[in-house]
Amino acid sequence: MDTVRLQGFHYRDGDYEDLPVVTVVGAGGIGARIVPTLVKMMSPVLEAQGLGHLREGGAVVPRTIYVIDPDEVVERNIYRQPFIKSDVGKPKAEVIAKRYAFYPYVKVIPVVGRVEDHKAELAQSRIVIGAVDGVSPRKAIRDVISSPPPYQEYPTPRVWIDAGNDEDRGQVMLEGWAIGQMMEGSPMRCLHLKGLEEFPHLVEGEDEETEGCGLRIDTQTPCTNTLAAALVLSRVHTLLHGGVLGSLGCRFSLMGGVQEVRGKATRGQYEVIHFSPEGV
Q1: Is there a contact between 38 and 236 (Cβ–Cβ < 8 Å)?
Q2: Exposed, middle or buried: residue 145 (CB in 10 Å: 0-12, 13-18, 19+)?
Q3: Domains: count for the chain
Q4: C-alpha R_g of the chain
C-alpha cells in the first residue's frame, strides 16, 4: 500500500493572487457553524503573513469567503442551527455574512441562490466547503472542482471538502486537486482526489422529493453538526498552514469516534493511488 501525503497551500513571497478564496456552500446546521471559526482562522493567518490585503491608494483589499445558500431562516431552524428569532424570514447567507462582516482581512460575501446557478464563485475558489444534503448541489460542485486546475510554473491546488451527517453520524471527504508525494522525500506531484467514490450515493442519482434538512422536523443533533464542522475546519487549518494530510477524509459518529478513510486519487491519466492514514 502506497503512503500518500497531501501538502497544504504554500504562499509565494507574499503573492496576493496566490491566496485562497474560500466558498462555503450551505449555511445550515454545518455551514453556519463553519463560517464563524473560518473567518477567525483566516484573518490572523493572513495578517501574520502580511497577505491579508493589498493597499491600493490607501484602500484595504480583503480576501474573500463566499457563502452560498438559497434558503431563508424559518422558526424551526433556531432550535438546531445557530440562528436567533430575529433572523426568521431573512436569507441565511445574508444573516451569516452580516454577522461576521467586521474582520478587516476577510470579506464574507453572501450569495442567495442555488449553487447550481453560481458556479462562477466556485471557479474562483481554492477551497470549497460543501455542507449540503442533496445530490444535485454536490454534482454542481463536482462539475467545477473536477476540471484540472491552472498549471503554469506549478500546479494550483483546488480542494473540495464535503461534509454531511444524519442523526448521530456522518462523513467528511476531500475531492479536487492537490499537491502530494508518495513518501517523505519523493517528488511532489499533482494528484486528482476522489474521496467521494467511497460514498457514491452522495453524487449519483437524483434528489428525493423532500423538504430538506433545514425545513423538515429532522433528528440531527447540534452535537453531530458541530462535530462535522470541527472536522472540516481541522482540514482547512492544515491546508492554510501548509501542513500534511494523510487521508482523504473520515467517517464519524458521536458514540464511535472518528475513523480515517483511505480513499483514492489518480496521478496522470490512469494510475490509481490509494491513501493510507498511516502517512499522517
Answers
A1: yes
A2: buried
A3: 1
A4: 18
